[in-house]
Amino acid sequence: MPFEQFIIFFLLLLLGFFCKKLKIFNDAAVSGINAFIINVAYPCLILVRTTALDMDPRIFSNFMLVLFMNLGLLLLFACYARLYFKGARFPTDIKPTIEFAGISSNNGFMGFPIAITIFGDLGLLYMVACNIALNMFFFTFGIKLLKRGREIPGEALAKKIKEFFLMVASPKVSAAIAGIILCYAGVVIPGAANEFLAGVGAVATPMAMISIGTMLAGNFGPRSFTKRAVVEPMLNKLFIVPVIAAAVVMFLPLDPLVKVILVVSNALPTATTVPILCERFDRNKGLASEILVVGTLFSLVTIPLCIWILQHTVL
C-alpha cells in the first residue's frame, strides 16, 4: 500500500492547521472552501471518474449492494451505541451527541480522497455509495436521535419528507447518478468538458485534507484527550465499529473490494456533518467537535493500519 500517500495527507493536514493558526484562513474562508468542495469539486470528481469506468451490471449491482449494506450496518451500529451508552455513566443530555458521533463516519471529506488514492475509481464509486447511505441515515435516524426527548407533537410528515429529499439529493448524489447513467448509456463527455471537470475535481482531495487540517486548529486542548465523553465514543468509532463491520462482511460472498470499502468507510473518524447537525438541534456542538478532532488525529495511525490489515487478508 502506498503509505507515502498518508504522509502527503498528513502534510496537507498540517498545512491546513498552520494556515488556520496563522490566520491565512479565517472561519469565513474555511466555510467557503468547504462549500466549494462539497458542491463543486467533489461532484466534478465523481462525475468524471464514474463516466470513465467500464460500467457493467456487476459494478452497478455492487454499488447498490454497498449502499444498502452500509445502511444496514449503520442501523446495527446505532443499536450497539444505544446499548453501550445506555449503560455507561454519562449525563442524559449528552447521550444523543455521543451516540451519533460514535457511529457516523467521515466517508465523504476523508473517505473520498482515501478511496480514490488507494483503491482507484471503482473504490471511489463504492465509497460514494457508502456516503449516500450515510446521508440517508443522517437525515432520518440521525435527526430522530438528536430530537430524542424533544420531539414536536404533530410535526408534519410532509415537512420531514421534504427535508429528507432535499438533503439526500445533494450535488454528490446527483453527480453519481448522472455518472452511472451516462456510463451505462455509453455517453462520452467531450474532450474540453471532460478536461475541465477533471481539472476541477483534481483539487478536491488536497483541498479536503487542508480543510480537515483547519479543524484541528479549533478550540480543543489536552483535556479533550482525558474526557470520557470524548474518548469513549472516539474509541468506539475507530475500533469497535470497524470490527463489527468486518465481522458482518468478511464471511459473506462479496467482491473483495466491496468488503474492504465497507470496513474502511466505517473505520474513519466522526463525520464533519455531526457537529453541524448538533448545532442545528442544540445538542453539544462543542463536544461533537472535540470527538471529531481527537478521532481525526488518532485516525492518522488507525486508518493506514486498518488498510494494511485488509490488504493482507482480503485483497
What does this entry look like structurally?
With 315 residues, this protein is mostly helical. It is built from 13 helices and no strands.
Question: Which structural traits does this protein have?
Answer:
315 residues; globular; 0% strand; Na+/H+ antiporter like fold; mainly alpha
SSE diagram, text form:
Elements: H1 4-21, H2 27-51, H3 57-87, H4 95-101, H5 111-146, H6 157-168, H7 171-185, H8 191-202, H9 204-215, H10 228-249, H11 256-267, H12 273-280, H13 285-313
Helix pairs in contact: 1-9, 2-5, 2-7, 2-8, 2-9, 3-4, 3-5, 5-6, 5-11, 10-11, 10-13, 12-13
Q: Into which percent range does the helicity of residues fall? A: over 70%
CATH topology: Na+/H+ antiporter like fold
The major sheet is characterized as: none
Which architecture name does CATH use?
Answer: Up-down Bundle
Order of helices and strands: HHHHHHHHHHHHH
Class by helix and strand content? Answer: mainly alpha
Beta-strand proportion: under 5%
How many strands? 0
**What is the terminal separation in angstroms?**
11 Å
Low-confidence stretches: none
The shape is globular
- The tally of domains stands at 1
**CA radius of gyration:** 19 Å
Count of helical segments?
Answer: 13
Mean pLDDT over the full residue set: 89
Q: What CATH first level would be assigned?
A: Mainly Alpha
